[in-house]
Amino acid sequence: MNNKTKNLLTIVGLLVILGAIVALYMFSVKKKESEKEETKQKEITVFKVNEDDLKKITYKNKNGEVTLIKNDDGEWRNEASKDIELNSLYTSQMSSDASKMIGTDEIKLEKGASLKPYGLKKPALEVDVETSDDKFTFYVGDESISAGGRYAYTSKDKSKLYIIGTGIYKDFDYKANQLIKVMKFPSITANSITYFKSEPDGGDDFEVSANDIKEFADYSKWKVTEPFENPLPGDDHYLGNLMNMFESVVLSECVVYDPDEKDLKKYGLDKPNSKITVKYVDAETEKNTTLKIKLGSKTDDQYIYAMTDLSDSIFTIDAIKIESLGNPDILTYVADYFIIKPVDELTHLELKGDKDMEFEVKASNDKIKVSKGDSKEADSDEFSKAYELFLSLSPVGLVKKSDIKGEDKIEKSAVFNYGDEEIKLEFYNYDGDNFYRIAVNGKMTGLLVDISEVNYYYKSMAKV
Description:
Mean pLDDT is 88; it is low at 34-41. The chain contains eight helices and 27 strands. Strand 7 (135-144) and strand 8 (149-154) form a beta hairpin. It is elongated and about 115 Å long. By secondary structure, the protein is α+β, with helices and mostly antiparallel strands.
């Protein structure tokens, strides 16, 4: 076989291969076009009307029956309460569903065939549609997992069933009150708040406001006035976290638009579990604004029924985001007002109790020299260790007047001098066994400290 023949055969072979590729490509294109055509054929228009012509939509589901009518402004309203604004996201989707239905499959029914196997003898959803010149109803039944949708038919042709998307059923799955447009909760930031009060039923009131007491300036920008006999500085960090919770509060659902006494009792708002008052500077108006909230009972799904003074309606609020505001752990938000300073700043210490003690302290070259009241030198290391115990002093509870036993009596006292500054702690009787009441610089705090801890501090200092 000569070279010319070989080249000719090679060219023929290449042409055959190329022809096969082209044929395969054309087959693939036709197949895709066929699939597209088949998909198009499966999109069945069950009904279609001009959405602008819709006048009334009445739907019935497991929750009851709701009739929506379109007002002169083209807005949908509940026929039973025409003045109440509805959530347009919900009503516009219902309007769209009522104007057009697309099916993916068609089932022809034999005459007299039962609708029960399709869940259409008692439909899950029934929607009456009224336009300016037409009326009809469509029905939605059970979900077909194999067909990937729900069975449906219309009053226009009861001989055919269709498979439609599951979305239509969900779009109408609302109670009348759930359609009501929920009021937006005010935008309240921690930095905008100037006052906060919580009044839990059966608990201690907690009241906080911007600090205006010079004595507290080094401790906090907040002062806590209730439930204490005298104001205390707040803990800036934890109070900041508490106030930040207002930023995440959202009114979830309108439960009752215009409640009566029975509704208030039903949702625990005739006698609220807690009342909240917050004062803040409105970001838009820059005016001082007050908001009041009442918290009622809990729902089954961890929401709380609530009311604000901005509306007469009853709403739900996520319990996680509001409970801490309604009943805060008070001790968490109080600063350690009786802060004891480091030993190298101490100049004089006087303790009174079972045994009176007095110490003079002088700092020199990063060391301290301690002398007792009788001028005898004390072991500075042992003194420092005993003194360190006082640094851990912190409140463990709140005073309840009903638990105070006997007349007021100072059981122990401690006076700490740091140069010209003086901190005086006085430990008063309380229940006799477990706690002392504590006063700072002559003022009762309303706080309790552990009696065994205080006694241990004094015993440790007596060994110096």
